[in-house]
Amino acid sequence: SAAEKGGYDYFMLKEIAEQPKAVADTLLGRIDAGGSLTLDEIRIPVSVLREAAKVVIVACGTAFHAGLIAKYAIEHWTRIPCEVELASEFRYRDPILDQRTLVIAISQSGETMDTLMALRHAREQGAKVLAICNTNGSTIPRESDAVLYTHAGPEVAVASTKAFMTQLVACYLVALYLGQVRGTKWGDEIQAVIRDLAKISGEVERVLETMEPVRELARSLAGKNTVLFLGRHVGYPVALEGALKLKELAYMHAEGFAAGELKHGPIALIEEDLPVVVVVPSPRGRSVLHDKIVSNIQEIRARGARTIVIAEEGDETVVPYADHLIRIPATPTLLQPLVSTVPLQVFACELATARGNEVDQPRNLAKSVTVE
Ligand code: AGP
Q1: Catalytic residues (predicted)?
Q2: Dist. CA 131 → ligand 1 center (Å)
Q3: 286 pLDDT higher than 90
Q4: How far apart are CA 92 and CA 76, in angstroms?
Q5: Averaged pLDDT for residues 59-82
Q6: CA distance 197 to 194
């Protein structure tokens, strides 16, 4: 009913709008007055977290994209090697697991069969499993050694939005917590990022307030067949997620690429007026990546692409090459997905609507996939 949708036309719109609150709720009570993380709810003993030799993340779909982003954070802040694998592939390749492997299973529903089978396999091999889950008491957390709940609230739309954002928050919390308990050289940075995380909900809100041009752009592209998405570093999984949303909702051919891979093949796809969304990393800090992606934008534009550039406020270098410019607030490098994902969600939702698709119930899809 309209009341359930809180005045929005679709649950997806409501859930996109709820993201600042979902993000804040997932942080609530997990940062203490001194600015340290308190994740005692992770009942895995600190000694086990200190001795973990490897982290393996298993998940499907959008949750898998959260896992890909988590890898950058975990390896950077903890120096523990981290693999991310599609849950549906995991157990069939005889993965190497033991007591010193920490497996993280990410799932909104907690009922995804592929993810459940992956974690059962991991536990049989002696690994410890931490679930990141949005649904209290669901099967995946019940069968795991520990759980960190995301507090997105119920997600009704088939296409995941607010649950993804809170999965990211939970992944950052786990990465920072592992860094905190293991004591790495990044101690000061970890403290600073915890402070930035505490403010991020307001930044998400700010992005939401500037989405009208994105909706307009989406409507203007309703007749297109293909949209490509490019990103680097944590912007790469964001590109994959942007493409998945467009497939699910707009039933369009959409692909995400690592921008550095362009020259190894995908650049052959570029043709006159092809929309290409580019997620640009911050020009601060690891700016080498920024400069490389700006040259990618130049290259594809020279070949006729219609460039849709998502870049940090104040980043002027992209202006001459952007046919459409979408601004996002400055964040620490690793946290950028929390703001860069939002325009891609809005874009997919509006394109789907413009194409007359059923936004909350896309064809052929179910909210949780309880078969293998
Ligand atoms: C998200 O938009 C999708 N509908 C889908 O990829 C989903 O993320 C995937 O099926 C995993 O679901 P889960 O998080 O409930 O395990």
Answers
A1: 367
A2: 15
A3: no
A4: 29
A5: 97
A6: 5
pLDDT of residue 189: 86
Ligand 1 geometric centre to CA of 245 (Å): 11
The finding on whether 117 has its CB within 6 A of some atom of ligand 1 is no
Q: Tell me the pLDDT of the chain averaged across its residues.
A: 95
- What would the two tokens of residue 179 be? 């860094």
Examine the pLDDT at 2 and tell me if it is beyond 80. no
Residues 163-178 have a mean pLDDT of 97
Cα–ligand 1 centroid distance for 105 (angstroms):
12
For the CA of 158, the closest atom of ligand 1 is 4
Atom 6 (ligand 1) nearest CA:
61
CA 293 to ligand 1 centroid distance, Å: 29
pLDDT greater than 70 at residue 283: yes
> Cα–Cα distance between 299 and 357 in angstroms, integer?
34
Q: Looking up tokens 């896309």, which residue turns up? A: 362
What residue type is assigned to position 79 of the chain?
A: R
Task: Give per-residue pLDDT as tens, 292-308.
Answer: 999 999 999 999 999 99
Rounded distance, CA 91 to CA 105, Å?
13
Atom of ligand 1 minimally distant from the CA of 167? 14
109 pocket-lining for ligand 1 (C-beta < 6 Å): yes
Element holding 20 (H helix, E strand): helix 19-27
